Amino acid sequence: MVLIKKRPSWEMPEREATPEHVFLNRRKxxxxxxxxxxxxxxxxxxxxxxxxxxSQAAPIMAPDPTASLYPAPRNDSYVLDREITDEALASTYxxxxxxxxxxxxxxxxQKLVIRPWEVxxxxxxxxxxxxxxxxxxxxxxxxxxxxxxxxxxxxxxxxPWSGFALKSLxxxxxxxxxxxxxxxxxFNDKRMAPGQKAVWYPWPYVEGLTMAEATNDLAFMVTGVxxxxxxxxxxxxxxxxxxxxxxxxxxxxxxxxSFTKKRPKSFWQETGPREYGFWANVNPEVPHAxxxxxxxxxxGGGGRRVATQLFNGYANEVAHLYKGLENxxxxx
Length: 332
Ligand SMILES: Nc1nc2c(c(=O)[nH]1)N[C@H]1C(S)=C(S)[C@@H](COP(=O)(O)O)O[C@H]1N2
Ligand SMILES: [Mo]
Description:
With 332 residues, this protein is an alpha+beta fold. 17% of the residues lie in helices and 20% in strands. Bound molecules: ligand MTE and molybdenum atom.
């Protein structure tokens, strides 16, 4: 466990404590929106002459430019065998090593600046391109899906993700037929994410899938949860959800998507090659090097454990992807 000393947010100069785009656009926003200007004394906009307030309280949040997409229409093909995890709990129990190697990173993750957010698409594609997240999402069919999520640490949750099939993004990217894998990368900025100061980790976080996995219907790019744009601690603005695999495959805050011939080496594979592999498919019968995977604790279930299912219950959808690969370490 890493302890990194950092200033509490109330000690931060306002430029640091405020997401860049909010800072830069604040004056414009206030000019445009009479409502916000009228509310300024209440909201305590620092340095806002129009508002006339001297308060130094919390800065306002700019409206999320994708807010109107949510709640997205639910795709009823994806059903749960358990209750949806309480939103407050799922939002405060997160794995996001960029902000610390423990579960209580939700506050620290608010330092993540999610606008502007560029996504680079490169490698074996017809045409490399970089586009903003807001441009990208406009081209994608956004829907809601109820998915289970099984962390390799043997806890699980069930959440209503919003987003689009990874397959839609692959189609948009136009990979060459020589592409065998998709590789995804998280941002790398230790000023924003203090966890990235830990030099013993191979930053940035990287994950990958085969093309067959990436184009399977279940592979989902997440942009929202609980009917709203994705909160930062969940890996805003763009993260993966591959629910038949251990949670660490579901990479957060993606900035780069590359198509490759070579199998990508992931963050956890690099960190602990004896414990974490490329496939990481959920299997109750194959224990982790240090614990059993036979059961899992349901987050918010008062300590209740349930039996873990092969492919986390998604065998019908994905088992065929692994025919003929029996000699591969499919479950680590
Ligand atoms: N970039 C990045 N992505 C990540 C992680 C991380 O530390 N960094 N943790 C993974 C793990 S182990 C899990 S269980 C899930 C947690 O997602 P949640 O916080 O939305 O529940 O994110 C995955 N994606
Ligand atoms: Mo995890």
